[in-house]
Amino acid sequence: MTVFLETPQLASRWCQQQRQRGLSIGYVATMGALHAGHLSLVHRSVSENDRTCVSIFINPLQFNNPDDIEKYPRLMEDDIAMLAPVGCNMVYTGSLQTFFPEHAAAQHIATKIIRDTEGRGLPDKIIQGLEAVYRPGHLEGVKAIVERLFQTVAKCRAYFGEKDFQQTLLVQQIAAAGGQVEIVVCPTSREPSGLAMSSRNQRLSAPGKTAAAVIYQALVAARRGWLSGNHNPASLEQIMREQVCDAAVTLEYAAVRDPDNWSADTPSSELNNARALIAAYVEGVRLIDNLALTQH
Ligand code: AMP
Fold first, then answer.
1. Extended strands (E) in the chain
2. Which residue, among 171, 189, 188, has the nearest Cα to 180 in the 3D structure?
3. What is the pLDDT of residues 239-264, one digit of tens each?
4. Which of 44, 53, 69, 163 to mutate to test the pocket of ligand 1 (most atoms within 8 A of CB)?
5. Among this protein's residues, is 38 annotated catalytic?
6. pTM of this prediction?
7. Best mutation site among 28, 31, 40, 41 for ligand 1, i.e. most ligand atoms within 8 A of its Cβ?
8. What's the 44 CA to ligand 1 centre distance in angstroms?
9. In the structure, what pLDDT confidence band is assigned to residue 45 with cuts at 50, 70 and 90?
10. Most buried by CB count within 10 Å: which residue of 140, 149, 150, 278?
Protein backbone atom coordinates (compact mmCIF):
# COMPACT_ATOMS: atom_id res chain seq x y z
CA MET A 1 0.00 0.00 0.00
CA THR A 2 1.21 3.52 -0.81
CA VAL A 3 0.50 6.22 1.77
CA PHE A 4 -0.07 9.73 0.38
CA LEU A 5 0.90 12.59 2.71
CA GLU A 6 0.10 16.20 1.92
CA THR A 7 2.74 17.98 3.95
CA PRO A 8 6.47 17.59 4.64
CA GLN A 9 5.67 17.61 8.36
CA LEU A 10 3.57 14.45 8.02
CA ALA A 11 6.25 12.91 5.78
CA SER A 12 8.95 13.67 8.32
CA ARG A 13 6.95 11.95 11.07
CA TRP A 14 6.33 8.91 8.84
CA CYS A 15 10.07 8.61 8.13
CA GLN A 16 10.91 8.88 11.84
CA GLN A 17 8.44 6.10 12.60
CA GLN A 18 10.04 3.82 10.01
CA ARG A 19 13.51 4.44 11.46
CA GLN A 20 12.24 3.80 15.00
CA ARG A 21 11.14 0.40 13.74
CA GLY A 22 14.70 -0.18 12.48
CA LEU A 23 13.78 0.14 8.80
CA SER A 24 16.07 1.80 6.24
CA ILE A 25 14.66 4.46 3.92
CA GLY A 26 15.31 5.08 0.24
CA TYR A 27 14.17 8.37 -1.22
CA VAL A 28 13.48 9.70 -4.72
CA ALA A 29 12.83 13.43 -5.20
CA THR A 30 10.71 14.29 -8.26
CA MET A 31 8.61 17.01 -9.81
CA GLY A 32 6.02 14.46 -10.99
CA ALA A 33 4.83 13.64 -14.52
CA LEU A 34 6.57 10.36 -13.87
CA HIS A 35 8.10 8.22 -16.59
CA ALA A 36 10.22 5.07 -16.77
CA GLY A 37 13.35 7.08 -15.84
CA HIS A 38 11.84 8.08 -12.51
CA LEU A 39 10.58 4.54 -11.96
CA SER A 40 14.10 3.14 -12.53
CA LEU A 41 15.20 5.20 -9.50
CA VAL A 42 12.26 3.91 -7.47
CA HIS A 43 13.03 0.29 -8.46
CA ARG A 44 16.65 0.73 -7.37
CA SER A 45 15.55 2.23 -4.07
CA VAL A 46 13.03 -0.56 -3.43
CA SER A 47 15.74 -3.15 -4.08
CA GLU A 48 18.22 -1.53 -1.65
CA ASN A 49 16.03 -0.30 1.24
CA ASP A 50 13.26 -1.50 3.56
CA ARG A 51 11.02 1.46 2.74
CA THR A 52 10.90 3.81 -0.25
CA CYS A 53 9.40 7.26 -0.34
CA VAL A 54 8.97 9.66 -3.25
CA SER A 55 8.30 13.39 -3.14
CA ILE A 56 6.34 15.10 -5.89
CA PHE A 57 6.74 18.85 -5.82
CA ILE A 58 7.11 21.23 -8.75
CA ASN A 59 9.59 23.54 -7.10
CA PRO A 60 8.87 27.12 -8.23
CA LEU A 61 12.28 28.22 -6.93
CA GLN A 62 14.17 26.38 -9.67
CA PHE A 63 12.26 27.75 -12.68
CA ASN A 64 13.85 30.80 -14.23
CA ASN A 65 11.22 30.93 -16.98
CA PRO A 66 7.53 31.54 -16.00
CA ASP A 67 6.33 29.88 -19.23
CA ASP A 68 8.27 26.71 -18.36
CA ILE A 69 6.66 26.29 -14.93
CA GLU A 70 3.21 27.12 -16.28
CA LYS A 71 3.51 24.42 -18.97
CA TYR A 72 5.16 21.83 -16.70
CA PRO A 73 2.87 18.75 -16.73
CA ARG A 74 0.85 18.21 -13.53
CA LEU A 75 -0.41 14.64 -13.15
CA MET A 76 -0.47 13.90 -9.41
CA GLU A 77 -3.17 11.22 -9.51
CA ASP A 78 -1.58 9.37 -12.43
CA ASP A 79 1.79 9.60 -10.69
CA ILE A 80 0.50 8.05 -7.46
CA ALA A 81 -1.15 5.29 -9.48
CA MET A 82 2.21 4.54 -11.14
CA LEU A 83 4.09 4.42 -7.84
CA ALA A 84 1.88 1.96 -5.98
CA PRO A 85 2.66 -1.15 -8.10
CA VAL A 86 6.44 -0.61 -8.02
CA GLY A 87 6.70 -0.88 -4.25
CA CYS A 88 6.78 2.79 -3.21
CA ASN A 89 5.55 2.99 0.39
CA MET A 90 4.94 6.69 0.77
CA VAL A 91 4.44 9.69 -1.53
CA TYR A 92 4.51 13.20 -0.19
CA THR A 93 4.04 16.68 -1.46
CA GLY A 94 3.89 20.19 -0.05
CA SER A 95 3.87 23.86 -0.92
CA LEU A 96 6.49 26.56 -0.50
CA GLN A 97 4.58 27.55 2.66
CA THR A 98 4.70 24.07 4.18
CA PHE A 99 8.29 23.35 3.13
CA PHE A 100 9.43 26.71 4.51
CA PRO A 101 7.01 27.47 7.37
CA GLU A 102 9.42 30.04 8.79
CA HIS A 103 8.73 32.19 5.70
CA ALA A 104 5.04 31.27 5.25
CA ALA A 105 3.85 34.77 6.06
CA ALA A 106 6.36 36.52 3.79
CA GLN A 107 4.88 38.53 0.93
CA HIS A 108 7.53 37.38 -1.55
CA ILE A 109 8.20 33.95 -0.14
CA ALA A 110 10.40 32.72 -3.03
CA THR A 111 12.73 35.72 -2.77
CA LYS A 112 12.92 35.31 1.00
CA ILE A 113 13.82 31.60 0.75
CA ILE A 114 16.52 32.18 -1.87
CA ARG A 115 18.04 35.05 0.10
CA ASP A 116 18.11 32.84 3.16
CA THR A 117 19.72 29.97 1.20
CA GLU A 118 22.34 32.24 -0.36
CA GLY A 119 23.13 33.62 3.07
CA ARG A 120 24.30 30.14 4.03
CA GLY A 121 26.69 30.07 1.06
CA LEU A 122 26.50 28.28 -2.26
CA PRO A 123 28.77 25.40 -3.26
CA ASP A 124 30.51 27.80 -5.62
CA LYS A 125 32.39 25.42 -7.95
CA ILE A 126 29.32 23.50 -9.06
CA ILE A 127 27.27 26.63 -9.45
CA GLN A 128 29.59 27.74 -12.24
CA GLY A 129 28.98 27.42 -15.95
CA LEU A 130 26.38 25.73 -18.18
CA GLU A 131 23.10 25.42 -16.23
CA ALA A 132 24.23 28.22 -13.91
CA VAL A 133 24.77 30.49 -16.90
CA TYR A 134 21.82 29.51 -19.06
CA ARG A 135 19.31 29.13 -16.21
CA PRO A 136 20.23 31.87 -13.78
CA GLY A 137 18.96 31.05 -10.30
CA HIS A 138 18.08 27.45 -11.21
CA LEU A 139 20.76 25.70 -9.15
CA GLU A 140 20.19 28.06 -6.22
CA GLY A 141 16.51 27.07 -6.32
CA VAL A 142 17.46 23.38 -6.44
CA LYS A 143 19.77 23.86 -3.48
CA ALA A 144 17.07 25.54 -1.39
CA ILE A 145 14.52 22.77 -1.91
CA VAL A 146 16.94 19.83 -1.75
CA GLU A 147 18.27 20.98 1.61
CA ARG A 148 14.70 21.07 2.89
CA LEU A 149 13.75 17.72 1.29
CA PHE A 150 16.78 16.11 2.94
CA GLN A 151 15.86 17.63 6.31
CA THR A 152 12.34 16.23 5.87
CA VAL A 153 13.33 12.65 5.08
CA ALA A 154 16.55 12.80 7.18
CA LYS A 155 18.74 9.69 7.30
CA CYS A 156 18.28 7.86 4.01
CA ARG A 157 19.76 6.83 0.68
CA ALA A 158 18.64 9.34 -1.95
CA TYR A 159 18.53 8.33 -5.62
CA PHE A 160 19.22 10.91 -8.34
CA GLY A 161 19.45 10.61 -12.11
CA GLU A 162 22.72 11.21 -13.90
CA LYS A 163 20.69 13.00 -16.60
CA ASP A 164 20.78 16.14 -14.47
CA PHE A 165 24.54 16.03 -14.09
CA GLN A 166 25.26 19.37 -12.43
CA GLN A 167 22.39 18.62 -10.07
CA THR A 168 24.08 15.37 -9.02
CA LEU A 169 27.27 17.31 -8.20
CA LEU A 170 25.25 19.81 -6.21
CA VAL A 171 23.22 17.26 -4.22
CA GLN A 172 26.42 15.38 -3.38
CA GLN A 173 27.79 18.57 -1.84
CA ILE A 174 24.55 19.22 0.05
CA ALA A 175 24.49 15.65 1.35
CA ALA A 176 28.13 15.83 2.43
CA ALA A 177 27.44 19.06 4.35
CA GLY A 178 24.35 17.61 6.08
CA GLY A 179 25.93 14.24 6.88
CA GLN A 180 22.66 12.25 6.90
CA VAL A 181 22.01 11.36 3.28
CA GLU A 182 23.90 8.96 1.05
CA ILE A 183 23.56 9.86 -2.64
CA VAL A 184 23.18 7.14 -5.25
CA VAL A 185 23.56 8.35 -8.85
CA CYS A 186 21.62 6.25 -11.36
CA PRO A 187 22.01 5.86 -15.14
CA THR A 188 19.83 7.72 -17.63
CA SER A 189 16.84 5.83 -19.04
CA ARG A 190 16.41 6.43 -22.75
CA GLU A 191 13.85 5.94 -25.49
CA PRO A 192 14.84 3.39 -28.16
CA SER A 193 16.02 6.39 -30.25
CA GLY A 194 18.47 7.33 -27.50
CA LEU A 195 16.45 10.39 -26.42
CA ALA A 196 16.74 10.75 -22.65
CA MET A 197 13.38 10.26 -20.96
CA SER A 198 12.07 13.49 -19.50
CA SER A 199 8.76 14.86 -18.24
CA ARG A 200 9.27 17.63 -20.78
CA ASN A 201 9.17 15.11 -23.68
CA GLN A 202 5.38 15.03 -23.19
CA ARG A 203 5.31 18.50 -24.72
CA LEU A 204 7.00 17.34 -27.94
CA SER A 205 5.18 16.24 -31.11
CA ALA A 206 6.17 12.90 -32.70
CA PRO A 207 8.43 14.67 -35.27
CA GLY A 208 9.86 16.77 -32.42
CA LYS A 209 10.80 13.61 -30.52
CA THR A 210 12.43 12.18 -33.61
CA ALA A 211 14.43 15.39 -34.15
CA ALA A 212 15.44 15.51 -30.46
CA ALA A 213 17.27 12.18 -30.79
CA VAL A 214 20.10 14.12 -32.46
CA ILE A 215 21.09 15.31 -28.96
CA TYR A 216 22.06 11.78 -27.98
CA GLN A 217 23.67 11.16 -31.37
CA ALA A 218 25.89 14.20 -30.82
CA LEU A 219 26.93 12.92 -27.40
CA VAL A 220 27.74 9.53 -28.90
CA ALA A 221 29.79 11.23 -31.63
CA ALA A 222 31.83 12.96 -28.93
CA ARG A 223 32.39 9.62 -27.22
CA ARG A 224 33.46 8.09 -30.50
CA GLY A 225 35.94 10.93 -30.89
CA TRP A 226 37.23 10.40 -27.36
CA LEU A 227 37.62 6.65 -27.84
CA SER A 228 39.56 7.21 -31.04
CA GLY A 229 42.08 9.28 -29.05
CA ASN A 230 40.77 12.85 -29.29
CA HIS A 231 40.90 14.14 -25.69
CA ASN A 232 40.78 17.82 -26.60
CA PRO A 233 37.63 19.39 -25.07
CA ALA A 234 37.25 22.21 -27.61
CA SER A 235 37.59 19.82 -30.53
CA LEU A 236 35.05 17.39 -29.00
CA GLU A 237 32.63 20.30 -28.53
CA GLN A 238 33.04 21.13 -32.21
CA ILE A 239 32.22 17.52 -33.15
CA MET A 240 28.95 17.80 -31.20
CA ARG A 241 28.01 21.16 -32.74
CA GLU A 242 28.54 19.73 -36.21
CA GLN A 243 26.21 16.80 -35.44
CA VAL A 244 23.34 19.06 -34.38
CA CYS A 245 22.55 20.42 -37.81
CA ASP A 246 18.80 19.70 -37.67
CA ALA A 247 16.86 22.96 -38.07
CA ALA A 248 14.32 21.71 -35.50
CA VAL A 249 16.98 21.62 -32.76
CA THR A 250 18.48 24.83 -31.39
CA LEU A 251 21.62 24.17 -29.46
CA GLU A 252 22.14 26.16 -26.27
CA TYR A 253 25.42 24.56 -25.31
CA ALA A 254 27.49 21.52 -26.29
CA ALA A 255 30.19 21.28 -23.67
CA VAL A 256 32.93 19.00 -22.39
CA ARG A 257 33.95 19.16 -18.75
CA ASP A 258 36.14 17.25 -16.32
CA PRO A 259 33.60 15.80 -13.85
CA ASP A 260 36.28 15.53 -11.15
CA ASN A 261 37.42 19.11 -11.56
CA TRP A 262 34.39 21.13 -12.62
CA SER A 263 35.05 24.40 -14.40
CA ALA A 264 32.85 27.19 -15.70
CA ASP A 265 34.62 27.23 -19.06
CA THR A 266 35.90 24.61 -21.46
CA PRO A 267 39.20 23.21 -20.10
CA SER A 268 42.09 24.31 -22.30
CA SER A 269 44.21 21.19 -21.93
CA GLU A 270 43.59 17.53 -22.74
CA LEU A 271 41.57 15.62 -20.13
CA ASN A 272 41.92 12.20 -18.50
CA ASN A 273 38.28 12.05 -17.51
CA ALA A 274 35.51 13.80 -19.40
CA ARG A 275 31.78 14.22 -19.72
CA ALA A 276 29.92 15.73 -22.65
CA LEU A 277 26.84 17.81 -21.85
CA ILE A 278 24.19 19.32 -24.12
CA ALA A 279 21.24 21.65 -23.68
CA ALA A 280 18.98 22.31 -26.66
CA TYR A 281 15.52 23.59 -27.53
CA VAL A 282 13.09 21.53 -29.60
CA GLU A 283 9.63 23.00 -30.30
CA GLY A 284 10.26 25.53 -27.54
CA VAL A 285 11.02 22.80 -24.98
CA ARG A 286 14.38 22.87 -23.24
CA LEU A 287 16.06 19.45 -23.09
CA ILE A 288 19.33 18.45 -21.42
CA ASP A 289 21.42 15.31 -21.65
CA ASN A 290 25.00 14.17 -21.03
CA LEU A 291 27.30 11.19 -21.47
CA ALA A 292 30.50 9.97 -19.87
CA LEU A 293 33.23 9.95 -22.53
CA THR A 294 35.63 7.87 -20.48
CA GLN A 295 34.98 4.15 -20.39
CA HIS A 296 35.43 2.81 -16.88
P1 AMP B 1 12.55 15.54 -12.14
O2 AMP B 1 11.16 15.09 -11.85
O3 AMP B 1 12.79 15.89 -13.56
O4 AMP B 1 13.03 16.58 -11.16
O5 AMP B 1 13.49 14.28 -11.89
C6 AMP B 1 13.49 13.61 -10.67
C7 AMP B 1 14.66 12.66 -10.63
O8 AMP B 1 14.56 11.73 -11.70
C9 AMP B 1 16.00 13.39 -10.80
O10 AMP B 1 16.97 12.79 -9.96
C11 AMP B 1 16.30 13.16 -12.25
O12 AMP B 1 17.69 13.23 -12.54
C13 AMP B 1 15.76 11.75 -12.45
N14 AMP B 1 15.51 11.50 -13.85
C15 AMP B 1 14.86 12.31 -14.73
N16 AMP B 1 14.89 11.78 -15.97
C17 AMP B 1 15.58 10.61 -15.87
C18 AMP B 1 15.97 9.59 -16.80
N19 AMP B 1 15.65 9.67 -18.09
N20 AMP B 1 16.66 8.54 -16.34
C21 AMP B 1 17.01 8.43 -15.04
N22 AMP B 1 16.68 9.36 -14.10
C23 AMP B 1 15.97 10.43 -14.52
1. 3-5, 25-30, 51-56, 90-92, 156-161, 181-186, 249-257, 275-282, 285-292
2. 171
3. 999 999 888 999 999 999 999 999 99
4. 163
5. yes
6. 0.96
7. 41
8. 13
9. very high
10. 278
